[in-house]
Here is the input.
Amino acid sequence: MALIGGHPYLLQRAFHQIVTSNLTIDQVCGQGIQESGLFGRHLSSWFAFLQRNPFLKENLQKVLSRSEPDWNAFLSLRKLGLVLREGARTQFRCKLYEDYFREQFHSRRDP
Here is the structure.
């Protein structure tokens, strides 16, 4: 739960893989943000979407830096299921998303 935060699709995917491939929870979690891992296709599709939407990408980067995003961007990112509000602070819906986007934005700096 710490990794995927109760996200229905990610939970379903994890449980399916555990049952059909005889993986342990630790193995599933160990794959985490790897492109070739269990969640790789799901995560890379979100990154591709953000590459085509610079306004949302910029505001998601603000969430990574603990800054508050533009309100309209927050509403869109929340609707997409990437972020939520905890008190007065915007944060990622789950650690998997935070770890993945931190890695992607760090390793793929725009020129």
